[in-house]
Write a structure and sequence with these properties.
It is built from twelve helices and twelve strands. By secondary structure, it is of the alpha/beta class. A hairpin with a 2-residue loop joins β2 and β3. α2 runs parallel beside α4. The site of aminoimidazole 4-carboxamide ribonucleotide has 20 residues, from α3, β6, α6 and β7.
Length: about 280
């Protein structure tokens, strides 16, 4: 695997308190009260999914159903930063299928283009990959298939890189899917999440595959149910269609450890206005 090295500029040092980095949110207007379990509301993670060097969105993870949204992922990343998002959620889709990083050049271009933290998943399956990406400027790696197949790697990585390892749990009808979602296991999402309760995982990113890329609405109920059964913070993902999903999530997340939400297609096609989304997520319900 080749992980391009990023020219170090000190912006993404290990151990940096990335949540506090989120405080420099541009004014979104109105009465924005800082709320939430750590005082900053919910984080919106705009998704940049990479396929053959381009920024795409799939429907339910099917590679054959890709919509190309941007041929220049770095420009897109810059734009998401400019509108006020405090994190980026980047997925190397080819990497998730191949089991190794494939869109490394595009990820490096994104890292060079923005100063907000980046979480990266897709094809990161061993310590060398984790080490290389965190060294290259990724703030947080997302481990999906490895969490099911080599859980010891997750534990080791959490020990070596505290706060910088997230687990991606992608569920099809409640059961964990891996390898680009081509394989579905017999393990329930909540059972996999519970295996890492004492590992020091920064977050569980929970995706409902049946809704991902479909704009049919976030599965708030299942996400809250998961969050209520674990202590690890949860990031909701899959199906966000409009502002009402975010309003509902903001309300239902009160008192839980849900800390953010990944939004893809709805941002790209304009169904969600970035400023309005930030306002909803940062304002008390
Ligand atoms: O859309 C898909 N088919 C898909 C996707 N978005 N397959 C995997 N992924 C993402 C997961 C997670 O962020 O949501 O890739 C990451 C997991 O990759 P890996 O290589 O660790 O299983």
């Amino acid at each position: 695997m080749t992980v391009p090295q990023r020219a170090g500029d000190g912006r993404h040092k290990a151990g940096r308190n990335v949540r506090s980095a989120g405080h420099d949110v541009p004014e979104t207007g109105g009465d924005v009260r800082e709320v939430g379990r750590d005082g900053v509301g919910l984080t919106l993670y705009p998704a940049i999914d990479l396929k053959a060097g381009q920024c795409v969105r799939l429907r339910r993870g099917e590679m054959g159903e890709a919509t190309v949204y941007d041929a220049d992922p770095a420009a897109r990343a810059r734009r998401w930063q400019a509108v006020g998002f405090r994190w980026l959620h980047v997925v190397d889709l080819d990497g998730a299928f191949a089991g190794r990083s494939v869109n490394g050049a595009a990820v490096a271009a994104i890292l060079a283009a923005v100063s907000i933290p980046v979480q990266l998943g897709g094809g990161i399956r061993d310590m060398a990959g984790i080490d290389a990406w965190l060294g290259a400027g990724v703030q947080r790696v997302v481990l999906g298939s490895a969490a099911l197949k080599t859980p010891a790697l997750v534990r080791d990585a959490c020990r070596s890189f505290p706060g910088r390892v997230a687990v991606g749990i992608d569920a099809r009808n409640g059961k964990v899917a891996i390898e680009g979602w081509a394989e579905t296991s017999g393990i329930a999402a909540v059972d996999l999440a519970r295996r890492f309760e004492d590992a020091g995982v920064a977050a569980i990113i929970y995706t409902d595959i049946g809704r991902d890329g479909t704009m049919t609405g976030l599965n708030v109920e299942q996400t809250v149910a998961l969050a209520n059964r674990i202590t690890t913070p949860v990031i909701a993902s899959g199906g966000v269609a409009g502002l009402s999903d975010l309003t509902t999530l903001r309300r239902e997340a009160e008192g839980t450890d849900i800390e953010g939400v990944v939004v893809g297609r709805a941002l790209y096609d304009g169904s969600i206005d970035p400023a309005a989304a930030l306002k909803v997520l940062l304002t008390a319900p």
